[in-house]
Design goal:
Helix content: 40-55%
Number of strands: 11
Largest sheet: 6 strands, mixed
CATH class of one domain: Alpha Beta
Radius of gyration: 22 Å
Strand order of the largest sheet: 7-6-8-9-10-11
Order of helices and strands: HHHEHEHEHEEHEHEHHEHEHEHHEHH
CATH architecture of one domain: 3-Layer(aba) Sandwich
CATH topology of one domain: Rossmann fold
CATH superfamily of one domain: Response regulator
Number of helices: 16
Distance between the termini: 52 Å
Length: 376
């Protein structure tokens, strides 16, 4: 954000405290500008090209045993419904049965207990650290029902927690967004991450962005706007963000931890006269964000294409291995440590996602999984 933009957003008392001279010419700021530009130039480039291959490379020894049951525990967020769609499609492909339950975010343990009562062959859940459901995971292990997960946070699988973990954290997505903002701003990115702390897995995106900013951009700053599920359900995100931006006038990038947090925000920012002063970026984009990039609304600038449907397939891939083989093969956890995501930041790259304007996963990922499963 330029100096005149920051000054334009300040009230008179803030202006006086800040110093009128700071809103004039840049004077002798050349060396500072050179330093920030150098920092931006030294930061790694963000990944903006769509991956073409799935990360799984180890084939099954034989086709999966048909007739097993995968029980999907789905969180209340819309992105979890997308993941569930992938789980359902993948289980059908593998010849398995699919059952599901939407659990309350405040009670994932209760959801796991309900799933265990159904006596499935395997249970899948995302975004919950094992410490939050320790006793229920222990009960599942004692019952001989493996639990597979994605994005629980920085932890490793074990005999009494998760049998397999795909995309251990969303930290890489936060890192990629930070690199993009650093480059785009020339080393002067001042971000606010819009997030919901009650989902611990989302914190890894925050941590990835913050650590990358600190490492590569001394002229950048970060902040957080912490919301609740009720804020999202009640349509309060936009008004709370407007209030935050009005009290933090240096902010020039709003980072959404997932796309549903952006609902109503562009309209609210325009109504508050903030639409020309910030860029909107984030994780888990869908049609609204990609179509906005194509139209060039002046705000939506860069969004991570997050393969939520693919994540469901990866959960099933892990389930096939732990059910038929008892464990995952050596090196498997490294294969699935991160999802094949990337940043969409041009109309051309967004148009490539037509007609759905969504990103399910690398092109042909279903067939690639079928080949791994000896079904192709």
């Amino acid at each position: 954000m330029t100096t005149w933009q920051r000054c334009a957003r300040m009230s008179l008392p803030v202006l006086l405290a800040f110093g009128l001279a700071a809103c004039g010419s840049s004077g002798d700021s050349t060396s500072g500008g050179d330093a920030t530009a150098a920092a931006a130039a030294s930061a790694p480039a963000p990944l903006t090209t769509a991956p073409t291959k799935i990360t799984n490379t180890t084939p099954l020894a034989k086709p999966p045993t048909a007739g097993k049951t995968f029980f999907w525990l789905q969180c209340e967020l819309p992105i979890c419904e997308k993941i569930g769609g992938g789980v359902k499609a993948a289980t059908k492909t593998a010849g398995w049965d699919f059952k599901s339950l939407v659990y309350k975010s405040a009670d994932p343990g209760g959801g796991l207990e309900s799933a265990l009562q159904q006596k499935p062959d395997v249970i899948g859940i995302t975004g919950i650290p094992s410490a939050a459901i320790k006793s229920q995971l222990k009960a599942a292990a004692q019952a001989g029902v493996p639990v597979v997960t994605c994005s629980p946070g920085p932890e490793e699988p074990s005999a009494e927690t998760y049998a397999a973990i795909c995309s251990q954290t969303t930290g890489p997505d936060g890192e990629n967004l930070a690199k993009w903002a650093i480059k785009d701003s020339g080393g002067e990115a001042h971000t606010v991450m819009v997030t919901i702390p009650s989902f611990p897995s989302l914190q890894t995106t925050v941590d990835g962005l913050n650590s990358t900013m600190e490492k590569y951009c001394p002229g950048c700053s970060t902040g957080e706007l912490e919301l609740t599920v009720d804020d999202l359900a009640g349509g309060q995100v936009a008004s709370k963000l407007v209030a935050y931006l009005q009290s933090h006038p240096d902010t020039n990038y709003v980072v959404f931890n997932f796309a549903d947090l952006e609902i109503g925000v562009p309209e609210a920012l325009k109504g508050a006269g903030l639409d020309k002063l910030v860029k909107l970026i984030g994780n888990g984009a869908g049609p609204q964000q990609f179509e906005a990039i194509i139209k060039g609304n002046g705000m939506d600038a860069a969004w991570v294409a997050y393969p939520a449907v693919y994540e469901g397939w990866q959960l099933v891939d892990a389930a096939l291995r732990v059910v038929d083989g008892g464990t995952v093969p050596d090196g498997y956890q490294k294969e699935i440590a991160a999802l094949p995501s990337y940043i969409v930041d041009t109309p051309e790259s967004a148009k490539a996602l037509a007609p759905s304007y969504d990103y399910a996963g690398p092109a042909g990922y279903e067939e690639q999984f079928e080949t791994l499963w000896q079904l192709g």
